[in-house]
Sequence to fold (136 residues):
Amino acid sequence: MVVNKSKAAFRTIAEVAEELGVATHVLRFWETKFPQIKPMKRSGGRRYYRPDDVKLVSIIRDYLYEKRYTIEGVQKVLKEKGVKNLLGEEIQKDFFEAETEIPELDSHCRELLISLMGELKEVREEMSRSLAKIEK
Fold:
């Protein structure tokens, strides 16, 4: 069953398994061996893989099946190189490709935002002072 979804769409475990040519139980097993694989789980435990999850699982699959690494070997690679390095700069890129139009703010909204920023700055300073007292 081939479904044409955008690159940014979430995928079910069945869709990911079909795309990568592995069984769904293999993906569930990999989740136990690689804590970096964290699909979203909805009620009933149904898994939804984000684009980065799919890419990570694909990389793990390539290390295991193509490069013939052991599970321990892939765990070591993930630990040494880190997920972000393996995924590269493409992390979540699909979500930001389409440029969104930034609305113009009227003077009232602008003043409100400036006021809020000032209040947040005061809160941050107060928290810093409180933290400094605690650390003494």
